[in-house]
Amino acid sequence: MFDGLSGKLTGVFERLTRRGALRESDVAEAMREVRVALLEADVALPVVKDFIAKVTEKAVGEAVIRSVTPGQMVIKIVQDELAAMLGSDAVALNLTAVPPVPYMMVGLQGSGKTTSAAKIALRLQTKSKKKVLLASLDVHRPAAQEQLALLGAQAGVATLPIVKGEPPEMIAARAMSVGRREGFDVVILDTAGRLHVDEALMKEAARVRDIVKPVETLFVADAMTGQDAVTVAKAFADQIGITGIVLTRVDGDARGGAALSARAVTGAPIKLIGVGEKLEDLEDFHPERIASRILGMGDIVSLVEKAGEVVEKDEAEKLAAKMQKGTFDLEDMRNQLRQVKKMGGLSGVMGMLPGAAKIKAQMAQANVNEKMIARQEAIINSMTAKERRDVKLLNASRKRRIAAGAGAKVEEVNRLVKQFMDMSTMMRKASKMGQKGFARHGMAGLMPGGRR
């Protein structure tokens, strides 16, 4: 989501750090560029003004200008202020109330509210071991209640039986009654959305709020809608009151302004982000990690956490040992491709690596994308087990057979083999660099032209 903004800010700060000594005019020039970058990313103007003022005040201090590494100190100030703009600390969903704890989902139609309700229910049930009941209060959109019932079934989460003709207020009261009677820990109420904010929508949401007295009122915003999402969030915050924000479609090509503005404009923390279409694709929002990612510093902590969820410990240890010994083969590469898909795809993983902006640009020029990853897996699947273990066996006739079996061209097989050889070289370099070396040089240190 932050690729465009990240690329521009990285460029600004690279120029700043190359200058060595800094004057106030250098900082002012950099802040003008940062201001433009934020506005182009669709961040609200009042938020941008406040941000630039705070950074400038701290960045032109004598301690910064006269320090040994003034450029790096300015970047640290920007990172801290970005994190503060986003909320400083991660805020978890509130479960400290007498069960059943009522959660109320609000937002506009098409924002991903219903899917987010099911994602949160699955998350609470699997990670927090809570018994969750889903209830649809949307009697306006055709098949909205059936959609939530279907999503609940897919997630293995209970849903409130549908009673045709029942108004939202009665559905809410019945959901809470069932929740108490049947021992549910959390009841998630999916309210109706509209195509725009209107008086009827707000009054209906307010009546439901007064009946259930929600512990969490979560505003669901589509990150792709930019400033419109922020305007609507403020309307709900002012008229209904919200305790948190859920950003959806964060994996898309949004400019990121909604995420950077929503917290500052509404005062409510961003609690969760939707990073894909699957019900499992929901993550906690960590302001400091997102700030680091925006500035091109990566998010190794999140990457390690995500890897821990999809990679078996024994398999990871075996792979690490093979990489250190230089015995990494195409079978291992195929397993890595599969794990990358589980971790949110190539773009998701790359976004969490230090120095990823430049690597992404190189990958785009080389036409490396998610479809290419699928084709590479198909090519490796077309090989025999012996060929996967020993790439040297792949002569011209074998490559023709493999290409035909995968529905690919021989050139693609050759490209895969070259990438495998490059990857093997990178693995050996990473082993020599060690953790400190990787932290210092990032992915760029492993690429051609990087540290050797």
CATH topology of the largest domain: Rossmann fold
Number of strands: 8
> CATH first level of the largest domain: which class?
Alpha Beta
Give, in order, the helices and strands.
HHHHHEHEHEHEHEHEHEEHHHHHHHHHH
Can you put this structure into words, describing what you see?
This protein has about 450 residues and is an alpha/beta fold. It has three domains: about 5-85, SRP54, nucleotide-binding domain (Four Helix Bundle (Hemerythrin (Met), subunit A)); about 100-295, 3-Layer(aba) Sandwich (Rossmann fold), CATH 3.40.50; about 310-445, 434 Repressor (Amino-terminal Domain) (Orthogonal Bundle). The chain has helices at about 5-20, 25-40, 45-60, 60-65, 70-85, 115-125, 145-155, 170-180, 200-210, 225-240, 255-265, 285-295, 300-310, 315-325, 330-340, 345-350, 355-365, 370-380, 385-390, 395-405, 410-440; strands at about 100-105, 130-135, 160, 185-190, 215-220, 245-250, 270-275, 280-285. An eight-stranded mixed sheet has the order 3-2-4-1-5-6-7-8, with helices on both faces. α3 (about 45-60) runs antiparallel to α5 (about 70-85) and α10 (about 225-240) packs parallel to α11. The two termini are about 30 Å apart. Residues about 300 and about 435-450 have low confidence and may be disordered.
